[in-house]
Automatic annotation (TrEMBL):
Reactions mediated catalytically: D-fructose 6-phosphate + L-glutamine = D-glucosamine 6-phosphate + L-glutamate
E.C. numbers: 2.6.1.16
Organism: Tessaracoccus lacteus
Coiled-coil region: none
Subcellular location: Cytoplasm
Entry's Gene Ontology molecular function annotations: glutamine-fructose-6-phosphate transaminase (isomerizing) activity
Signal peptide span: none
Primary location recorded for the protein, binned into one broad class: cytoplasm
Record's protein name: Glutamine--fructose-6-phosphate aminotransferase [isomerizing]
Alphabetic keyword roster: Aminotransferase, Cytoplasm, Glutamine amidotransferase, Repeat, Transferase
Subunit and partners: Homodimer.
Domain SIS: 42-181, 214-358
Gene this chain is encoded by: glmS
Length: 368
């Protein structure tokens, strides 16, 4: 039931702090180590893995893009991310030392299922990240990490996505732990930060009024661009996808560094552009994104900037400033995506669309 919300999607957006907390539950033992028993692979097997391939579709694919940044940084294992619909048809290089990770909220997506069948035929081990107990994908995988988002009814994925991010982070940190990576201190600090994340997410959601006002202000617009860099790039893609799916508007996400290689030609007077700025710790990257904001603003774009509260330069370059809490770069997606989800939900509502059942879309895509 919608529990007083107008849409399941909005309810599910607001459930995310709880969903993330549930997905994290019971992961730390009293020695401060990460527990991930359901992986069911011995430490020796996990130490022998020499490549990770993540396969997924849609929003789950974007969770996979974030996972690549995190897993490679923490484990130094090369990690590829591929759309499930492309994977099987290009003769991918996989063998028994490859770990294939599939991400699927429903666990029934045909493209993803076919990809794991193909991977297992080549001898790869498959771990599924899934939200649906006993679905086909987890049944056909060697192991499964369940997300504990609870049933996701809205067709556009929200809590499915943030809990997939949590599962990916846990997997990456676990692999780093098992492989004895030198980031021991960093791992412990990140685990503590993850535990505090539901609170940060709640703070973001409590500040929703600004996003509702923004949707009201922009409800006549027909085209939106989203920019991000590093893990902000998949956030730009996911923010744009949400708007396409439920508001049927032209929305495109770009890597901010690609701007001058083409997309900047699209920037015109008044064009709304969401820009996700990395936290201040990653100085070079952040500086570059901040100068991108000035570049597009000089060409007339209306800049909606998501950045840390202490980022005065980003604030100065913003027409609208959406404050993000101070978190580690790799974890920023958990807070940055919330206003983008809420904006899409509100804009579609203002336009009178059926947010939970967007036209032409089904909750699980069981044909290739
Ligand atoms: C977007 C969305 C889709 C799904 C995709 C994969 O909001 O819902 O893009 O993410 O169809 O679905 P699952 O995760 O069930 O495999």
């Amino acid at each position: 039931q919608k529990q007083g919300y107008d849409w399941f999607m909005r309810k599910e957006i607001f459930e995310q702090p709880r969903a993330v907390a549930d997905t994290l539950l019971g992961r730390l033992n009293d020695r401060g180590e990460l527990v991930l028993d359901e992986i069911r692979m011995s430490p020796e097997t996990l130490r022998r893995i020499n490549k990770i391939v993540i396969v997924a579709c849609g929003t789950a694919f974007y969770a996979g893009l974030v996972a690549k940044y995190a897993i490679e940084h923490w484990t130094r294992i090369p990690c590829e991310v591929e759309l499930a619909s492309e994977f099987r048809y290009r003769d991918p290089i996989i063998d028994p030392m490859t770990l294939v990770v599939t991400i699927s909220q429903s666990g029934e997506t045909a493209d993803t299922l076919m990809a794991i069948r193909h991977a297992r035929e080549q001898g790869a081990r498959v771990i599924a990240i899934c939200n649906t107990n006993g679905a086909t994908i987890p049944r056909e995988s060697d192991a499964v990490i369940y997300t504990h988002a609870g049933p996701e009814i809205g067709v556009a994925s929200t809590k499915g996505f943030t809990t997939q991010l949590i599962a990916c982070y846990l997997l990456g940190l676990y692999l780093a732990q098992v492989r004895g990576m030198k980031y021991g201190d960093e791992i412990a600090a990140l685990l503590q930060e993850l535990e505090r994340m539901p609170e940060r997410m709640q703070d973001m959601l409590d500040a929703q009024q600004q996003i509702l006002d923004l949707a009201e202000e922009l409800k006549q617009e027909k085209s939106f661009l989203y920019l991000g860099r590093h893990v902000g790039y998949p956030m730009a893609l996911e923010g744009a996808l949400k708007l396409k799916e439920i508001a049927y508007l032209h929305a495109e996400g770009f890597a901010a560094g690609e701007l001058k290689h083409g997309p900047i030609a699209l920037v015109s007077e008044g064009l709304p552009m969401f820009i996700v700025v990395p936290p201040k710790g990653r100085d070079q990257l952040r500086d570059k994104v901040v100068s991108n904001i000035s570049e597009v603003r000089a060409r007339g774009a209306r800049t909606i900037v998501l950045a840390e509260g202490c980022d005065d330069e980003a604030r100065a370059a913003a027409d609208v400033f959406i404050e993000l809490p101070h978190v580690s770069t790799l974890l920023q997606p958990l807070v940055a995506i919330l206003p983008l989800q809420l904006f899409a939900c509100e804009l579609a509502t203002l336009q009178g669309h059926d947010v939970d059942q967007p036209r032409n879309l089904a909750k699980s895509v069981t044909v290739e």
